[in-house]
């Protein structure tokens, strides 16, 4: 081995020894602060689950009949919430009344409900809250072309389909007939679902059918362009809105369906309730924000009957709006959700409460850690003073002829103690204690060597 290699090895050994000295002993710091960290972590976990539980990752949405606007919009909500890892389970239903029953029984967490289907008092009894109105869904009365009436009184004796009782249409249209002085029993009413009712109308087996739906519904789009089928014009629409306040007057503009073919060939006046997003009162507040956000993305644009940004809205609903939804409409999305993904923002929004609550616990515990850390570091040195005291006590009272044998043994023991002390790793801030110990070891050694063979103990 060359001299340079020996020098490098010696240098590495020196560096290794120096590394044993540091400003902070991480191991002692972890041991000293470990109980505090564990206690605070456990308290955070308990508070995390008990103070404000995490929102569920699966939500049930009651939609509507096949080929309805509710069904189409339900699929859009599912796609929007999937971006935030929320699985939206869609439940096909008959319509608004069926949806209200599912909310009441707990079979659904949130649902589309038509205005006029319930009242504020009934909603309070059922434990329901509105997340806002989404869009107008006009009453579409499609008649065969040979039915010439322009007034609802002319429907007497005709075969009109209102849909199943689970939908909101039968109750709604009965109210419309009532203000016209027409009793439901004066019509030949059937209760087919939308798709089979459309087949019956096209086959001529019924004279008309009633929908209440957004124009995006596929059946609406088809019937507006089907020869031999005409849309009833509610020329008294403004009067209907005065008699039934949950209705609004909307106009289907000429050519809106197909400008090239001029469909429809005139403006049509329609009366329209609004579709509302209704949830159980126990729906997690974070999910309310998420649904209102999705509603803005899906329904916020301009449409056949609405201006840009008109919907979603806390207006046009008889069911009281949930506090979280009202805050969202007033102030916009929560601050953190504007810059973070939903789950990360929700985590921080929940944890700040925990941090404040634990401040009273963390501050006192933090005062325990420094003294405990100092004690652990200094205890590495202090325990060797016990060994020194044992050496001194072993010498006391030793009689001839064992004195020389015992002294040799004790000197060897001091060498062993010094060797082990030289390998103690200690932060530089506490190195004075280590050097003091080594000095005291040397003092005891010198006293043993200076003892006269005839003395009874160590010299003072």
From TrEMBL:
Question: Source organism lineage?
Answer: Bacteria, Pseudomonadati, Pseudomonadota, Betaproteobacteria, Burkholderiales
Q: What is this protein called?
A: TAXI family TRAP transporter solute-binding subunit
Q: Where is the signal peptide?
A: none
Which InterPro entries is this protein grouped with? Answer: TRAP_TAXI
Organism this protein belongs to: Massilia suwonensis
Give the keywords, sorted. Membrane, Transmembrane, Transmembrane helix
Residue ranges spanning the membrane: these are: 29-51, 351-375
Q: Which PANTHER family match?
A: SLL1037 PROTEIN (PTHR42941:SF1)
Source superkingdom: Bacteria
């Amino acid at each position: 081995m060359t001299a340079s290699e020996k020098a490098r090895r010696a240098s590495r050994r020196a560096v290794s020894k120096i590394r044993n000295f540091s400003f902070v002993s991480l191991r002692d710091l972890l041991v000293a602060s470990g109980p505090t960290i564990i206690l605070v972590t456990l308290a955070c976990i308990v508070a995390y689950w008990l103070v404000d539980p995490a929102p569920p990752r699966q939500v049930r949405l009651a939609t509507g009949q096949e080929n309805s606007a509710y069904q189409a919009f339900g699929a859009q909500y599912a796609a929007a919430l999937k971006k935030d890892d929320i699985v939206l389970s869609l439940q096909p239903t008959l319509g608004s009344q069926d949806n209200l029953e599912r909310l009441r029984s707990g079979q659904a967490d949130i649902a589309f409900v038509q205005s006029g289907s319930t009242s504020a008092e009934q909603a309070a009894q059922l434990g329901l809250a509105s997340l806002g109105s989404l869009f107008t869904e006009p009453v579409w009365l499609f008649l065969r072309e040979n039915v010439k009436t322009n007034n609802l009184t002319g429907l007497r004796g005709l075969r009109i389909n209102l849909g199943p009782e689970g939908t909101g249409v039968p109750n709604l249209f009965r109210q419309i007939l009532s203000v016209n002085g027409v009793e439901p029993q004066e019509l030949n009413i059937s209760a087919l679902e939308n798709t089979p009712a459309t087949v019956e109308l096209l086959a001529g087996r019924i004279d008309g059918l009633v929908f209440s739906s957004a124009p995006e519904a596929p059946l609406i789009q088809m019937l507006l362009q089907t020869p031999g089928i005409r849309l009833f014009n509610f020329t008294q629409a403004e009067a209907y809105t005065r008699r039934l306040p949950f209705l609004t007057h909307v106009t289907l503009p000429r050519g809106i369906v197909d400008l090239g073919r001029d469909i429809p060939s005139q403006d049509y006046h329609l009366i329209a309730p609004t579709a509302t997003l209704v949830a159980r009162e126990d729906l997690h507040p974070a999910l309310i924000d998420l649904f209102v956000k999705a509603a803005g993305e899906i329904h916020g644009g301009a449409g056949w009957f609405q201006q840009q940004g008109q919907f979603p809205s806390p207006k046009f609903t008889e069911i009281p709006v949930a506090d979280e939804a009202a805050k969202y409409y007033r102030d916009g999305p929560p601050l953190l959700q504007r810059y973070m993904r939903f789950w990360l923002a929700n985590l921080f929004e929940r944890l700040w409460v925990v941090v404040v609550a634990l401040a009273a616990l963390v501050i006192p515990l933090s005062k325990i850690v420094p003294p405990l850390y100092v004690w652990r570091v200094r205890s590495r040195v202090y325990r060797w003073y016990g060994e020194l005291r044992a050496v001194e006590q072993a010498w006391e009272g030793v009689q001839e002829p064992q004195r020389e044998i015992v002294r040799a043994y004790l000197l060897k023991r001091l060498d062993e103690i010094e060797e082990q002390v030289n390998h103690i790793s200690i932060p530089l801030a506490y190195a004075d204690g280590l050097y003091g110990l080594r000095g005291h070891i040397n003092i005891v050694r010198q006293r043993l060597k200076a003892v006269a063979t005839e003395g009874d103990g160590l010299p003072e």
